Amino acid sequence: MDGGEGTILAVEDLGKTVTTGDGALTILSGIDFAIKRGESVAVVGVSGSGKSTLLSLLAGLDLPSRGTVALCGHALHQLDEDGRARVRGDHVGFVFQSFQLLPNLTALENTLLPLEVLGRANGEAEARALLARVGLEHRVNHYPRQLSGGEQQRVAIARAFITRPDILFADEPTGNLDAATGQKIIDLLFEINRERATTLVLVTHDNQLAERCQRRLELSAGTLAASR
Amino acid sequence: MRAFTLARQLLRRDWRSGELATLIFALVIAVTSVCAIALVTDRLTQGMVRESAELIGGDLVIQSSRAPDPAWLALGEDLGLATARVHSFDSVLFFGDNMLLSGIKAVSDGYPLIGKLKVRDGQPGSAAMAIDGGPTPGNAWVDARVLERLGARIGDRVEFGAISLRVDKVLSYEPDQGNSLFQLAPRVLIHEADLAPAEVLGPGSRIRYRYLFHGDNAPQLAALLAPRLSAGHELREPTSGESRAAEALVRAIQYIKLTTLLAIVLAAIAIALAARRYSERHYDVSAMLRCLGAQQRAILRLYGYQLLLLTGGAVLVGSILGWLTHLLVVAVIAPLLPVALPPPGLAPLASGAGTALLLVAGFALPPVLRLADSSPLRVFRRDLAPIPLSGWIVYGLAGGSQLALLWLLFGDVGGILLILLGVALGLFAIGCLVYAGLSRLRRAALPRSTLLGRSLRNLAAHASTSTSQIMAFGVTLMILVLITQLRTGLLDEWRLQFPEDAPNHFAFNIFPEDVDAFREIISGEGTLRPLYPVVLARLTAVNGKPLAVNEENDTNRELNLTWASTLPEDNRIVAGHWPPTGDGVSIEAEYAKRLGVGLGDRLHFSGASGDFSAAITSLRSVVWESFSPNFYLVFSAEQLAAMPATYLTSFHLAGDERAVLRSLIERFPATTLIEVDAILERLELVLRQASLAVEMMMVFVLLGGFAVLFATLQNTGDERRHEGALMRAVGASRGWLRRAYLAEFGAIGLLAGLLAVSGAEIASALIQQQVFNLTFRIQPLLWVAVPLGTALLVGVAGYLASRRILAVSPLRLLGE
Fold first, then answer.
1. Closest CA relative to residue B20, chosen from B278, B247, B225
2. In the structure, what pLDDT confidence band is assigned to residue B616 with cuts at 50, 70 and 90?
3. I need a surface site. Which of B125, B442, B563, B667 has the fewest CB within 10 A?
4. Mean pLDDT over residues B325-332, rounded?
5. Nearest CB to A100: which of B447, B732, B813?
6. Does the residue B555 lie in any domain?
7. Does B723 contact A102 at a Cβ distance shorter than 8 Å?
8. What is the domain count for chain B?
9. What ipTM does the predicted assembly reach?
10. Which of A173, A146, A179, A180 is nearest to A159 (CA)?
11. B446 touches chain A (CB under 8 A)
12. Domain termination residue (choose one: B205, B237, B269)
């Protein structure tokens, strides 16, 4: 199932079909690729090309209609929701377009959230270190509403790395930020990614951003148009 | 009409989506509880007024020591009222060589206006039966004591002034007897036509005249007569306060009303929360409608109709449920009522509808009004919310509707407002404490890896929501626990604190010649307290100044005076010296305070053998609960001994010695025996049933608590769904989330339970020590059972309500 030595994510003949009022609608079909450990990969394509659906299947947030997904040696398509949740908790980090911080938790508490879910107790020092790493050492006790968009995304990045994930999925991480802030955030994301040797899968429609990744997968109308 | 149809369609859609459930649930709770209490109160008040009318003899009574104007009777008859006259005075009957001072009551045709007299035919052991009307001219119905003392029998003729009367029946019950326990002279009931020929009345005779009126127009007559009455005439109307059942029931009703108010307040909170949510959910719809060209007025009409439809539905359901609930409550308190309750009317249901309208106007309207202000721009910019209404309007509407509700429930806003303000302040203070505690918890180092630690931190993170949920349940449960505790525990403890041989019987009207025999019988069988002489007199003046009639009627009532040289066991002298000598009198301290008198003041009395006065030489404190005979006023023997007196005492009889009672009754037929046990049992029944009724109404408060819980859950639902999706994205399983919710709501229940128990125990300790002088004992079981029980209850309820959150896929986080 593992796509070979050093492969962290392998996809074979992946397809997703949903039933609508007008019959079956194919969102993705016949997708094959593999990603090596430590690689950074951009998934690009126009709106509606199926980028987010692919991401949800790769991260085990959703199940494919056919084909296989192997993440860190786990056949995600064979696991139930709770099994996939366990794989996510153990191996995956997320950065979302709209940050997805909990409004009633401070920056520190938001960062610690994944550890709580995993029942790990002693993460506070690491969380503080990560927040310092993203430049928020003076804002650990601030609530999301007290932070700017860029700062909120920094907290989200700290949260994504707190579990020391093997692979990081980023869904349009600069989509809600202005260009300058977005640039800084992306720099930060790539730096930490490099420091921690994390695999990065980045969904974006921004070609410039995609260029910074080692590889790009281009989706077009639900199929893999190009893989470089 | 088109707007109405659209409103109905939209409402049906909202109904299907479950959005309206909390709003309707809260409205139904309010309507049901108000309808139920209004129906119960209405029937009970009518029942008590009826009993009270029987007690005083009519719906309107004029009594006086001077003959009232006969034109007043005619005036009553003109208004369609039934009328009757009663003359009461003491006079002597003769039978052979025997004579007896009797309490003569001469009545006109038509007497009694309400209720019936009960008579016996004089055969030993014959049963008393109700009879229409009173004696006819020439006949007398007499108390059993009259026959015994005169040695006469039914059918004998007794001399009454210049005429003779045939003793026709033995009188055993007068509906309008009031509380003449100390009726000194035995009753003789005659027809008023016999008064003139008997020639017993002359100038200066001490007669009490009473004109009785009965009918629906009695209040009109009262209004007509009130200005014409002179100082000597007293106008009496039945009030619910004069019923024998009144005091405990009136208090229970007040508690039930407060309970209802609490349910309404909780419902109002839930309604406000649900309406805010409803309004927020409809910003988009109304923005879209505005975009499509709907005017503000049209939107207002649309949502106005929706609210009306909702209210109408809630009123219908609530009225039916309220009706059923009131039947249950009435069934519970029925054993306490001396009269059958009149059938329920429809008017009280209007208060249910009024409550619903007020609640909707006060709490649901403000957020819904905002919908009309929705900007059509919101279609493009989601963050554009309507301009909030001015705080004055929102709080004005809410406060105004609560005041109107108070008026609806209690009729009198002023009195209850003060209590309510106190309660509100208390609750606010507790709320602040809970909030502060939760905020502190936020900074506390709680373990991050355990579910309980996480749930507590989560509660702290949502401190204001958590506070409202904890308060809604904590306060409700506190009251529930307190009532249950008082109901079951207090009476038992109170009884336990009496010595084994505490008196359980009172005996009144023991004649002086019977005292020795009585003492001998009881001393052989039980424990007898001292026998005290009783002289009846009215207090007429203090230091020579006539007393104004005060509320407690101290001046109009016959007082029981006694004389003694030994200080009664439970009495303590707090000022002056004991015993009273010469024309000195010892007065009970509280009574002195009420009269506004102290040492050295002179009290003037009017008794059967004339007027007399006494100077206060000491003030006493008295333990009234001891069941020993006690008196407000204790004189010296030299002052009272010459006046006609009977004796009273109390004594203890063990359960197996009750046979003595029968021989007492046979030997001293004129003596009244009261079984304290029976009174205590009655008191216990009243307390248990009344608090059971209150507890039944507490169910609505509990439901109100749940309404608040559900409303807050619904309002935080979006946030929770988001949170749930994120948790699952970062690796939480459904089971973990389920446990997390159970733990979080369990923690709410636990804290609410702790709040309830500590509050109830503190209140109960205060009540027991301050009011009942009992020693407070902590109830360990309660401290365990209540918090755990509430944790389970709220935990499961919150968990069930959170099921929807678990169904949300983490997918929704993508592409937002």
1. B278
2. very high
3. B125
4. 86
5. B813
6. yes
7. yes
8. 4
9. 0.80
10. A173
11. no
12. B237
| Residue in the block written with tokens 């619903």 | B356
B36-91: pLDDT as tens digits: 888 887 887 777 777 777 777 888 888 887 778 888 889 899 999 999 999 988 78
> How confident is the model at residue B788, as a pLDDT?
93
Amino acid at B336: L
Residues B743 and B780 in one domain: yes
Residue range of the domain that includes A185 = 7-227
CB atoms within 10 A of CB B324: 12
Q: Is residue A196 part of a domain?
A: yes
Contact (CB, 8 A) for B299 and B290: yes
A and B: number of Cβ contacts within 8 A: 89
Dump pLDDT digits (tens) for B694-729: 777 778 878 887 887 778 777 777 778 888 888 888
Q: Which of B365, B400, B353 is nearest to B274 (CA)?
A: B365
For residues B204 and B252, membership in a common domain is answered with: no
Cross-chain residue pair A121–B734, CB shorter than 8 Å: no
Q: Which of A61, A102, A103 sits opposite B811 (nearest CB)?
A: A61
3-state secondary structure B178-199: CCCCCCCCCEEEEEHHHHHHHC
Same domain, B702 and B756: yes
Q: Which structural domain range is residue B606 located in?
A: 505-652
Together in a domain, B628 and B720: no
Q: How far apart are CA A137 and CA A115, in angstroms?
A: 19
| Residues B317 and B334 reside in one and the same domain | yes
Q: What is the pLDDT of residue B551?
A: 44
B735 contact residues in A (CB cutoff 8 A): 82
Question: Would you say residue A221 lies in a domain?
Answer: yes
Percent residues over pLDDT 70 in chain B: 81
Chain B touched by A100 (CB under 8 Å)? yes
- Count of domains forming chain A: 1
Q: Which of B237, B257, B277 is the last residue of a domain?
A: B237
Residue A2 included in any domain: no
Cα angle for residues A182, A186, A191 (degrees, 5° grid): 150
Question: Nearest-CA residue of chain A relative to B461?
Answer: A104
Report pLDDT for B416: 62
Across the interface, whether the CB atoms of A102 and B726 are under 8 A apart is answered yes
CB of B734 within 8 Å of a chain A CB? The answer is yes
CB B472 within 8 A of CB B753: no
Nearest to B811 among A62, A115, A120 (CB): A62
The nearest CA of chain A is from the CA of B309 a distance in Å of 34
Give yes or no for B444 touching A (CB within 8 A): no
Residues B30 and B75 in one domain: no
Residue contact A97–B816, C-beta within 8 A: yes
State how far the Cα of B621 lies from the Cα of B188, in Å rounded to an integer. 39
Residue B744 is predicted with a pLDDT of 86
| Same-domain pairing of B732 and B616 | no
Interface probe with A: pick from B383, B442, B443, B448, most Cβ of A within 10 Å: B448
Cα separation, B543 vs B326, in Å, equals 53
Does A1 map to a domain?
A: no
| CATH code of the domain covering residue A124 | 3.40.50.300
Q: Of chain B residues 775-814, which have a CB less than 8 A from chain A? A: 809-811, 813-814
pLDDT tens digit sequence for B218-270? 888 888 888 887 766 778 877 655 555 455 566 667 777 777 777 787 788 88
B732 has a chain A CB within 8 A of its CB: yes
Give the residue from B730, B733, B737, B808 with the most A CB atoms within 10 Å of its CB, the best one to mutate: B730
